[in-house]
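Task card 7
Instruction: Convert sequence to structure tokens.
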Amino acid sequence: MNYPLASTTWDEREYEALQRVIESGIFTMGKKVADFEQEFARFVGSSHAVMVNSGSSANLLMVAALRYRSNAPILPGTEVIVPAVSWSTTYYPLYQYGLKLRFVDVDAETLNYDLEQLEEAITPATKVIMVVNLLGNPNDFAAINKIVEGRDILILEDNCESLGALFDGKQAGTFGLMGSYSSFFSHHISTMEGGLITTDDEELYHILLCLRAHGWTRNLPKENHVAPMSDNPFEESFRFILPGYNVRPLEMSGAIGLEQLKKLPDMVRERRRNAEKFRDLMEKYPFLRIQREIGQSSWFGFAFTVRSDMGYDRGQIIAAMNKSGIEVRPIVAGNFTKNQTMKWFDYSIYGDLKNANDLDQNGFFIGNHHFSLSDEFEVLDRVLTAVVNGQI
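Output:
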């Protein structure tokens, strides 16, 4: 590939961290995971972080924790607003906990919530808004907070694609009651597989610790918000208090995360420098609408929506890019409501999802990286010039 979608961010430091774990003989969740959680929470400015085996599991535990909190648990049948464009595991935990999803359109330029439609979609039954920061772009949380002001509605954040993004100087993923992150290979940091949940709520933190490992008490502090604990470690070894999971991360993933986190500020800065060059380049090609930044994006990738009204065809453009070695993907899952899996959901749709449909039919994205993309942008420029000149 002349311009791949993702690339490794590892060097000898990550491999040395792996080797240290191998030499320790401790491979399951241990001190390295705990240290990474502490450093991650410090980095994003949150009180607590819980590492799990994927961003999808992070979303699962985030939703599950709301079911088991002591004050106003989120029960089956509760209405949750979701954007029409996101990844599947934004939605699946909500379905799996019996919640009713209400799909709302995205903004054609930011690809995040259409704020006017979000406000109009709220009903008396709405208790949760799932905010998804798409492709590195944070939502306008000042506007969202104003929308929910005075209402009994809580905010969750799916920030799996947007580690390092800022809004008003605050890290994306920390605006809601909880936020989820992914450290899969193609994301801003990579721990092989991995994910995290952050929260400032101590009760939710304890619930997350319990749910992560079988629903048992073993990983809870003696003083906690979930269950009283005895002083007998034998009795607490296999005592189950919540219907949990086993979504623990490996000790290797925690060790790698510590090294990746050190690199993250520089990697995000380079992604932003690439974005400046990308925006300058795209001024030459008005038939492609690109994502408009909110706050400071961490630029997961570069999204396009083809202006079909200007006579251009997405299929031809993608074919030309593939031929030139530019790796291309749909914008997440496009309009998710088109998928067959929807037959299992309890859901409603607000409006006609015009922008989500346009994005689904005419959108695609290419990669961004932690290194300069000058050569890759030259390839992109040649392809788009050929499109304009009818040479594809």
